[in-house]
Amino acid sequence: MSSSHHTSMSAAAGIAAAVPAQSGSAFVLPAPLQAVSTKFNRFLQSTEEIVDQVSRPIGKYLPYVARFLIVLTFLEDAIRLFMNWDEQMSYLISRRGFNGYFAMFFLTSNIMLQTLGSFIVIGFGKLAPVGVGSLFYGLVLQTFGYAIYSDLSMLSRTLSLCGGLCLLASEALDTRRGRNAKDTSRRNLYAGLPELDAFEPAAYLQVAGRLFYMSLIVALLFDIEMDLLGVLYAMFVTVMCGAVMVGFHARANAVLLVVILVVHNFTVNDYWSVSYYHVLRDTMMYSFYQTWSVIGGLLLLANLGAGEFSIDKMKKSR
Question: Membrane-spanning residues where (predicted)?
C-alpha cells in the first residue's frame, strides 16, 4: 500500500504541474517530485490511450451500460419498497410520524418515480431529461422523508448519486444538441440578434457531476478502518476524486476509480455473506447497489471526457 501513498503524492504534484507557473513568482517543484510528476503524467496518458483503444469497439454500447448501472440502485430500491410495503408503512407512521394516507402516497410516489424514471433513462433517449428529473425528485423525497440529511454517510452517498444524474442530464443535452446540429431545416427566428447556445447548461451539469463525486470520499471513509493502510487508501482515493473534480486526466482517473470501487464493492459490501436476518444486511445491500450506480456515472464520465470547464480542456486549448 506504500506505493499507493507514493502515487497519491505524485498525482497531487501532477495537478500542480498542470497549472503554468507565473513569471517572477514561479513555484518550482523539487527535482525528485518533478520526475515523479512527469512519470505519473505519462502513466495517465497511457491509461487514456488504452481507454480510447478499448472504448472504440464498445463505444456505442458503453453509454447504455453506464445508464443501466446508474439507475440500478433506483430499481433495486423501488423493488425493495414494494416487497417490504408493510414494514415501510410501519416505519413511516411510527418513526417518522406520517399520516397513514400520506405514508401511502409517499411510498407510491417513490416507487413510481424511481421505476418510470429508470426505464425512461434506459430506453427512451429523447425523454432522458424527464427520466433524470423523476429520479432526482425521488432522491429529494427520500432525503427528507427518511431524514437522510441527518446521516452523513447516507447523505454523501446520495450526493454521489446526484453526480451520476448530472452526468446523465449532460449527456442527454449533448445528444440533443447533436441531433439539432444535423437538422438543417432549423432557422434562427430572431435574425440580427446574437444567438445563444441553448445547450450550454450541459457543460455546467458536467461540472456539477464532477463536484458531487467528491462526496464519494466521505462515503468511503465510513467503510474503511482508519489504520495505516486505511489512511493511505483514503489519501489515494481523495487524490483520484480531486483529479476528477478539476478535470485533470479525468478519463484515466475515472477508470482507475472504477477499478477501485469494483474491488471495494465486492470486498466491503458483500451482503450475500451475511445472514439474512442480520441487522446490517439491508444497509450493505443498499450500499452495494449505490456503489454500482456511482461506477456507472464514472463510466459515463470516462466516455464523455472532462468537458469544457476542466484542466484537460485548458491544456488542449493552448
Answer: 100-124, 130-149, 203-222, 228-248, 255-272, 292-311
